[in-house]
Specification:
Elements (H helix, E strand, L loop, with lengths): L1 E5 L8 H14 L4 E6 L4 H6 L8 H6 L6 H5 L3 E4 L2 E4 L4 H6 L7 H4 L1 H9 L5 E6 L5 H8 L3 E6 L6 H17 L5 E10 L4 H16 L5 E7 L3 H8 L3 H4 L4 H19 L1
Parallel strand pairs: 1-5, 1-6, 2-4, 2-5, 6-7, 7-8
Antiparallel strand pairs: 3-4
Bound molecules: adenosine-5'-triphosphate and magnesium ion.
Length: 262
């Protein structure tokens, strides 16, 4: 199982949308996918089920002592063909402060959980909150490849540099397999397509391109994306011919290409 995490310490850039649609695109290709929601806002969890879910990944993270495979299975829910979910809960926000996470022993708790279920899946796709707190640290400690969605309109060097430096620290101290899988652009409109290419993309490539891949695929602004979310339906079912569906298929192709090349 390869663990892919979508993170950026900026809010509203398309982390959840990207985690969801790349995960669903992988499942459509026949891969067994486990989603793991590490955001107490639980947007990914809500994408599958509106009702409150009593069991959640935070319970496993908070639990002291050993846990069994049955304990993990009790929290995982099937949510589609080839798709399971480790849900989040709003409680995880309050619990985050109590989570022991910044040391090597405790920060591998999610990694330990995922390792136990690894034989059952091809990919785990993690969604994170829009800041680098304990939950994101624990998520990255369990990650093989980090993908960073960037909204070019709200782009900031400082945030991106912090996230990439966090990965470097984690790689040295806790998770040697962690790599930045790539940066990709989300929510761009044709109106600033040219500017995007000339300004922001070049800027990011110049600044990070040597250490981090910058994907060719960009995710266009697509009304089908929020509409599918409001309808409570996956994008590929709701609007299979939308630019959103097309772009997430292309991003998944590019992710797989990079994965197989490495
Ligand atoms: N390509 C797109 N075109 C149009 N709307 C989009 C696109 N991508 C995401 N959105 C919309 O932008 C909003 C934020 O997206 P999303 O929830 O994926 O961001 P996020 O980074 O996970 O946010 P948060 O930091 O709150 O977790 C959502 O309403 C979503 O429907
Ligand atoms: Mg989100």
């Amino acid at each position: 199982m390869r663990t892919l995490c979508f993170s950026n310490n900026k809010g509203g850039v398309g982390k959840t949308t990207s985690a969801l649609n790349v995960g669903l695109a992988l499942a459509r290709r026949g891969h067994r996918v486990l989603f793991c929601d590490c955001d107490p806002q639980r947007s990914l969890t809500i994408s599958f089920e509106g009702a409150d879910i009593p069991e959640h990944v935070g319970m496993l993270l908070m639990r002291k002592g050993e846990f069994s495979l049955d304990d993990i299975h009790a929290v995982i829910r099937p949510v589609g063909e080839n798709v399971d979910l480790l849900p989040a809960s709003a409680e995880m926000e309050a619990n985050e402060a109590q989570l022991p996470g910044w040391d090597a022993e405790h920060s591998t708790r999610l990694a330990d959980i995922l390792e136990m279920v690894a034989p059952e899946y091809d990919y785990c796709v993690i969604d994170t909150k829009g800041s680098i707190g304990t939950l994101t640290w624990i998520a990255l400690a369990a990650t093989d490849l980090l993908y960073i969605p960037v909204d070019p309109e709200f782009y900031g060097f400082e945030g991106l540099t912090n996230l990439i430096n966090t990965c470097t620290r984690l790689r040295r101290r806790i998770n040697p397999t962690l790599q930045v899988g790539g940066i990709f652009f989300t929510k761009y409109s044709p109106a600033y397509r040219a500017r995007l290419r000339h300004d922001v993309v070049d800027l990011i490539k110049d600044h990070y391109g040597k250490e981090v891949p910058v994907f060719q695929t960009t995710i266009r602004q697509s009304t089908a994306i929020p509409n599918a979310q409001m309808a409570g339906t996956g994008l590929f079912d709701y609007a299979p011919d939308s630019t959103g569906a097309e772009d997430y298929e292309a991003l998944t192709d590019e992710i797989l290409l990079h994965l197989h090349a490495n």
